[in-house]
Design goal:
2 copies of one chain form a homodimer. By secondary structure, chain A is an alpha/beta fold. In chain A, 40% of the residues lie in helices and 24% in strands.
């Protein structure tokens, strides 16, 4: 038994709306453990809906339709389905009553076009719509050569979702689905490329339960471990040994699970150590401070910083040497180090991080090209280091800035972990 | 000739990601005038990709694939397509060179799994990927009983979009599509709700060429004016009178067109007036500085600022009175005003903007609830004002912070426009 999602709506083909319904239903089917291999979008057109049905009933036994249940003439889904199975439509009085009541509640009268929404194929059950006027249906067509079950939902996401939760989930559970749950854990990595990580854990991609699959996203790589089991505890028991194995292989490149971010991991490390942080930002203009303060409660460890976009600000608020600015330039190791020390001192914190660089697209020279970034890190013990990055000019200003903020967080994370391990030994 | 979009990726079936690629491509096909009746999503599985191809080539003559071009073993799209048409794959040296160069630029070595991305069916043309390692292809298969053209794109939206714009659009135009162009102008508004603006311009929604349609997005409202005409100049001639009419109706609530943002509009105003700006941020933690410096060249007018997350920083770097902090609290008119004056003085700028507030979800009291924000504005003439906002607790921390940054930019924009008009009179 496999399911197929069929979204009906010319507005989807024209790109007027984003297909969030398909995304929602895909997640819900995965959660119930119902296999689902195809999604189709088709316009408000009876002949083409018939074509799609013809294909779908050959390969799937549960067809989930969204869209095309409204009162206007271009809403054709119910009609097209009934027609395909040569089944007449009948007006359901309970639907008429329900629609009339809903209109009465908002002081309006039901109009004749709404009567259309009460037409349901003979033999189908109504799938009630508590928040809108368009009901759906659950139609188990045993007479078909391959038995098929059709569910229809309106296209309005909030109505569809409520109907799914209230009626469809209990229906599928009564058929025995959703007994085995699918549970996933996402592991997040930084400082290693997708292909390099994939090579290291290649042997795990062949596992079947749990499965391991890679995902790339901006500035990090993720591996998803998914297990199918009768309970969450049993799924976790399948996942954890594999997760530990991957974490061992990845070492410091592993930074957290899905609920964690580089920012939250760094924040927790600082909180645990009762240490504070200040930032000095040039080319990121406040982006590092902004991401640190996305976390509620970040005031426990984050005190603030200086956005030193102009060189004069680097001198006046961060005590960067004017001579060094002249000699080495604003984008240099010495200036990054002095910015980190300066902000640590000015804000009286345990740690100071600084960023200075050329985000692009302009401002690069042969010696100092676009993408050249220095990150300074002043530690609680009074030492200071700086790190050079060459991000290049291909990714664009915005991504260069984002990666730089992530690099700064990751440097601090690695530094704290290395210090902690050292102390522990 | 009709097109069909086929998105390949098990992550789409599992509901891990939202299918924004399909939405983008649907809009682009509509803009080119290429009819498109079906969209299909299928997993990373050769047999099922074959099934989908079998169906699609019977009903569509242009197949647009996204996803499954990466270096890992589950990326099977190219292989599955070549196999279906019984065409061998060949390694293209220009792709190998391109990938190697991209790796070299970021100081890494190409690894063996990337070689897979250089395998393209014999007879297919490469569709270059300027920003990533996975190229696509344009394959015109004349030998097929019904001639079919296949285009493939990687699943990463930014890469796919760039490839579409750079190569696919010129390709389709060379085939005669997109001669009547659809040209749009987006007008952007701030400080007025979608329904209020809609009421004011209601009479324009009935127009057919150009059409006027509203879009709501985070922190602003947009109206899109679209015209269809044989040339861009003719489309613009249809659009401009309507755009002017709307701008007159909206007054100061209109801030720019699509290429403009609040940030770029404010930046241009400051640049024109040869004025400079500094920011003092508490609850936004650097978000205002970060958005101001998204714009290349913002150093012309933005000098930097102070992230004064802790109260001690407000006192030490911004000279906020400790007595006032104690008496009125950090989230208050007097503190916002002193922060704005303080940062203007410390960074020696024409303007100082400050933000202090309770972003949530915690930290609110009955007197000072979550969402209470004060924005201070110190002007070149030495005056200072502050503005109170009550954003409430329903939108969440992230949106409250975003709206606050937008409010700060908008305050400065309105202030400068009012001053300029006054001087002009």
């Amino acid at each position: 038994m496999t399911a197929e999602i069929i979204c009906v709506g010319t507005e989807l083909l024209l790109g007027d709306i984003l297909n969030t319904n398909c995304h929602y239903l895909a997640q819900e089917l995965a959660a119930l453990g119902i296999p689902h291999y195809y999604q189709t979008v088709v316009g408000d057109n009876v002949a083409r809906i018939h074509q799609v049905l013809e294909i779908a009933i050959k390969r799937s036994s549960i067809l989930i339709f969204t869209g095309g249940l409204g009162p206007t003439p271009d809403d054709l889904t119910t009609e097209a389905i009934a027609d395909y199975f040569q089944t007449p439509l009948e007006e359901r009085s309970e639907v008429i009553d329900d629609i009339a009541q809903k209109f009465a509640k908002i002081g309006r009268k039901m109009i004749s076009s709404n009567r259309k929404q009460a037409l349901i194929p003979v033999g189908a059950n109504i799938l009630p719509n508590p928040t809108g006027t368009a009901p759906g249906m659950i139609w188990q067509i045993a007479s078909n050569p391959d038995p098929v079950t059709i569910l229809t939902f309106p296209g309005v996401p909030s109505e569809m979702q409520r109907m799914w939760q209230d009626t469809a989930i209990p229906f599928f559970k009564s058929l025995g689905w959703g007994q085995d749950i699918i549970y996933s854990k996402m592991l997040r990595f930084r400082g290693i490329g997708e292909s390099s990580l994939a090579e290291k854990v290649n042997h795990l991609f062949k596992l079947t339960n749990p499965t391991v699959a890679p995902y790339a996203s901006k500035g990090e790589v993720r591996l998803r471990i998914s297990a199918k089991a009768p309970s969450e505890a049993e799924a976790i028991a399948l996942i954890e040994p594999v997760a530990h194995q991957i974490q061992e292989i990845a070492g410091l490149d592993y930074f957290g699970t899905n609920e964690q971010s580089l920012t939250s991991v760094v924040g927790q490390l600082l909180r645990d150590r009762k240490e504070t942080l200040a930032v000095a930002e040039s080319c990121t203009g406040g982006g590092l401070g902004a991401i640190l303060t996305e976390i509620p409660g970040s005031s426990d460890y984050f005190r603030g910083g200086v956005i030193a976009y102009a060189n004069e600000v680097k001198q006046s608020l961060l005590q960067v040497s004017g001579d060094d600015l002249a000699q080495f330039g604003a984008v240099s190791d010495p200036v990054a180090q002095q910015m980190a020390i300066g902000v640590k001192k000015a804000l009286n914190t345990s740690w100071g991080i600084s960023i200075t660089g050329i985000a692009g697209p302009g401002g690069g020279t042969e010696e100092k090209p676009v993408g050249l970034i220095y990150i300074g890190l002043a530690s609680p013990d009074g030492t200071v280091e700086s790190f050079e990055y060459r991000l290049g000019n291909v990714r664009g200003r915005s991504l260069n800035r984002h990666l730089t903020v992530c690099n700064a967080l990751d440097l601090l994370r690695r530094k704290i972990l290395i210090i902690s391990t050292f102390i522990r030994i």
